[in-house]
Write a structure and sequence with these properties.
Elements: E1 11-15, E2 23-29, E3 32-40, E4 46-48, E5 51-53, H1 56-65
Length: about 70
């Protein structure tokens, strides 16, 4: 992937190839890349794990400073 070999904490968001309308957050974590599903909700909010956010940028800002403790894809 594009994040392979990048520094710890680098990330990108892409459209999900398996869940139309959802997104995938890919994060470089030490020597591997982890992928997390971001669900687009009917109320135009975004959900990752148990957390909901009004906007995608708010989700990303939150996880820049908080540990992402949800299961990877």
């Amino acid at each position: 992937t594009r994040l392979q070999g990048q520094r710890h904490g680098m990330f990108l968001v892409r459209d999900s190839s398996t869940c139309p309308g959802d997104y995938v957050l890919s994060v470089s974590e030490n020597s591997r890349v982890s992928h997390y599903i971001i669900n687009s909700l009917p109320n135009r909010r975004f959900k990752i794990g148990d957390q909901e956010f009004e906007h995608l940028p708010a989700l990303l800002e939150f996880y820049k400073i908080h540990y992402l403790d949800t299961t990877t894809l």
